[in-house]
Amino acid sequence: MVSAQALLDGSTLDDSTVIARSLEQPELFAVVFDRHADEMFRYAARRLGAEPAEDVVAEVFLVAFRHRGRYDRTRPDARPWLYGITTNVASQHRRAERRRIDVMARIGADRPGSFDDRSVERVTAQQLQPRLARALSTLSSRERDLLLLVAWTDLSYEDVAEALRIPTGTVRSRLHRVRVKLRRTLGAIDPFTLETQHG
Question: How many helices (H) and strands (E) in the chain?
Fold first, then answer.
């Protein structure tokens, strides 16, 4: 049985209901932060690095709080909405992302490390990382936003479309073009099958 306190604090409610109730009880929005801040931080950190990601996440939830009245209440999961805000806020930090990609592209594959705890797959991904970073640098910001949302989150194409405010068909066609472009740069390697961690 759900306690009265749980109902009051929103811990048993879906995101949409919590956001709606936060219009009357602003402190309830903390539930949305508690549920999703770590995930938004991980995404921002992979794109920009840990330090700028902290600022991005703080800004994301400030923007989300201010615009919570416009939230589409038919969507029980706020993650696509939050990923869209995170992508927009991260775009204001493009210089940091560009520097990160450029550094990744220059790093050689011969970085030292203990071979005992690395699998062949990790070694292969690590060796490919500079090439992958160079390939990412050839993409437009729109293409990179799309690719990284698909590759680094568990969002469906529909959720990615919602996050980027584009039709699902556009997600599919743009993603196809990005894959073709990256395969030309990377050879037969599909970047979606690799660990493309940037951090």
Answer: 10, 0
Query: Could you give the count of Cα atoms lying within 13 Å of 19 in the half-sphere of its Cβ?
Result: 25
What distance in Å separates the CA atoms of residue 14 and residue 137, rounded to the nearest whole number? 38
Q: Which residue is listed with tokens 């811990």?
A: 11
Q: Is residue 140 part of a domain?
A: yes
Question: Which residue, 19, 15, 163, is CA-closest to 78?
Answer: 15
Residues 43 and 47: their CA atoms lie apart, in Å, by: 7
Q: Is residue 8 part of a domain?
A: no
CB neighbours of 115 closer than 8 A, spacing ≥ 6?
123
Question: Is residue 92 one of the residues assigned to a domain?
Answer: yes
Residues 66-123: tens digit of each pLDDT: 999 999 999 999 999 999 999 999 888 866 666 666 676 666 434 444 433 433 334 3
CA angle 75, 77, 82 (to 5 degrees): 100
* Assigned domain for 58 exists: yes
